[in-house]
Design a protein that fits this description.
This protein has about 130 residues and is of the alpha+beta class. The protein has a single domain, classed as 2-Layer Sandwich (Beta-Lactamase). About 45% of the residues lie in helices and about 30% in strands. The protein has helices at about 1-15, 45-65, 105-125; strands spanning about 20-25, 30-35, 75, 80-90, 90-100. A hairpin with a 5-residue loop joins strand 1 (about 20-25) and strand 2 (about 30-35). Helix 1 (about 1-15) runs antiparallel to helix 3 (about 105-125). The protein starts with a helix and ends with a helix.
Length: about 130
Amino acid sequence: MHELKTILEEFSSRIDQFIACDVVNITTGMTLANVSADPNFDASLASAVYAEVVKANRRALDLLGVGADSCEDILITTDNVLLLMRMLGSDHYLGLAIGQKGTLGMARAIMRKFEAGLLAVVSELHA
């Protein structure tokens, strides 16, 4: 878990308007590792709830015939926070919360850059 936390700390340092990020098991909603810049933002609670959103999205994509695993990411916007969930294989996702003034395109690019490393560590944890 230490290696995963280290990667998330490096990841978070590159995100403008960073609030929090988690690597989450989709089935259980459990956070494997997280980093938060805001102690009032309960990222683990949000991640568990959003695991249900990811599951519902997969069911919808499957029903549409697109394929449950075809989703790259899910974006949810609020008045002051952007929530982005990027799939890490079929079992996990990287959840990211950034301030509304954050750059969504840059956040997505950085998530893609870190995806392979995060997926490799997560795969090792479950091997």
